[in-house]
Amino acid sequence: MVELKTDRLVIRNFVYEDWKDLQEIALDKEASEYAVYDHPFPTSEQEVKGITEWFAKGDHFLAVQETAVNKVIGYIALNGGGNGSEMDLGYCFHSLYQGKGYATEACTAVIHYAFDILKAERLTSGTANLNYPSCRLLNRLGFRKTGEGTASFRKSPEGNPIEFVGAAFQLEKKDWVKSSFTS
């Protein structure tokens, strides 16, 4: 069971009752200009209930709950290989809570958790080059760009792949330990 607390947030395992908040996040994500840079996220009540139930069964998807409003405002995915030395960090926050430091606050807590508790040695992440807010967040957290490649997760109305240039990022534990986030 995961429960991380920050000044404004609780980062915890999902529970089934979070499905409405997750549906709001999914609908918001799918309406975003950045939606074309990621896999489509189901938005129907039945689909989101199923996803929430699946999220609740493991520690890979964590709900980010804003304590003042007692609402899930986003989620963080932390996936890794069997040995735990390398893990992948992903995140999604409702647009009403973007640009207010919540993602930085939540990701910082989860990075500490990944390095200190799960004993990861390296974190990876990825985003579209044109997803400037996500690129800025990763840079702010100390991730370094390690490569680029063309990707496509969706199709145009005509059925053609919507291609974009994506970037791979990496954060080494040794670099994190030297950063200002550890003080």
Describe the structure using short key phrases.
183 residues; alpha+beta; globular
Quick structural summary:
The chain is built from five helices and eight strands, in the order ββααβββαβαββα.
Helix and strand layout, with pairings?
Layout: E1 3-5, E2 9-13, H1 19-31, H2 45-56, E3 61-66, E4 71-80, E5 86-93, H3 102-117, E6 122-128, H4 132-140, E7 144-155, E8 161-172, H5 173-178
Parallel strand pairs: 5-6
Antiparallel strand pairs: 1-2, 2-3, 3-4, 4-5, 6-8, 7-8
Helix pairs in contact: 1-2
Protein model, in words:
With 183 residues, this protein is of the alpha+beta class. The chain has one domain (3-182): 3-Layer(aba) Sandwich (Aminopeptidase). It contains five helices and eight strands; from the N terminus they run E-E-H-H-E-E-E-H-E-H-E-E-H. The protein has helices at 19-31, 45-56, 102-117, 132-140, 173-178; strands at 3-5, 9-13, 61-66, 71-80, 86-93, 122-128, 144-155, 161-172. An eight-stranded mixed beta sheet has the order 1-2-3-4-5-6-8-7, sandwiched between helices. The radius of gyration is 16 Å and the shape is globular.
